[in-house]
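Thread title: Can someone regenerate the structure for this chain?

I was given the following input by a collaborator and told the matching structure tokens would be attached. They weren't. Posting the sequence so someone can regenerate them.
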Amino acid sequence: IYYRFNDLEYRWVAKEDWTYRGVFTISADQLDVSRIELDCQGLDTVANVVLNGQEIGSSRNMFVRYIWNVKNALVERENILEISFQSPITYSQQQFDLQVAERHLVPPVCQPDVFQGECHANHIRKMQASFSWDWGPAFPSSGIWLPLNLVFFDHPRLKYVLWEVQDSTEGYFEVKISAIMNGPKGSFSYLMGPAIVGVIDEQFVEETFESDENGEITWSVSRTISKSDVQTWWPNGRGGQSLYDLHVSIYLPGQEDGEPLDQMTKRVAFRTVELVQEPLEQGRSFYFRVNSEPIFMKGSNWIPAHVLPEQVTREYIYDLLFSAKEANMNMLRVWGGGIYELDEFYDIADELGILIWQDFMFACSMYPADDATLETVAEEVQHQVR
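Best answer:
Regenerated them for you:
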């Protein structure tokens, strides 16, 4: 699509509806669990999901992780999963027409003609630049752009692990480790085993879990860690980029010497970052303190590395970010007309000492504020912040 006029020659692809179909086999043993989830980390964008003829859910947002309990829809032996995507061009035009009918116009009406793009990108929660921008072609694709997994379990399943650091005293960090899980209904006791490799050994905490109305379980624990036991992370040009593996594991009581029921690993750093806005004679200051030291930020604006983000590889991301490091940058702004970047992007930025100024995906347009849009945006923000 980058060759000559191929973005125009292949525009028909974006104007069609597409259905992805997969056939897979399930055994009786696999079905004999309390919960089976279809975990869709990225559906782009407007889709209905049907399993064995039964509609199990729908997507309206490229930036939301959709998880559905599909146990009752699965059968022994052959299963058929179909995900039907509506053309993003058709959908956004329909949403625009609905607003016009309600005499409520959300500008802009269309891209400038010179972009040779498509209209009404702001009416769909999708990468805005896929409808064209001044630096790239229009190719609003449809499909499964992030991993899709079928997960079987009888115990809490880790979905997110969160990490917070506070510089509490001169000699210590206060860290908070949190986990967001899905779990079976009812009240059960488990052992949680957080550990930071090379810093703190696995320390077991027995907890009684009960899922909320959304089927979620939230757990957290705090630890005090001596600064003498860790290396502080610094931006490019100001010091090293020490990173540590944080493991969070779940065990049944009395079985902590065996394999965990579930485990998630997250690379973390010991650092604090503050945006300082203090009153001046005119206005306010605007600078960053990292680990309590003022640091001048040098950087650039990051746009999507490809108009088809699923085509981007870890090697390509590393090459681009390493170039930024070699140019003495220490911060990049992820522009809000693209995507919340892949996990590999943030991992590599940590490795190279590059802080990320993260936009939410609301650049360069007005956006609808109806109840349905606000509801999906709330889901988007919750997922991305986690």
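Helices lie at 6-9, 28-31, 88-101, 314-326, 343-352, 371-385.
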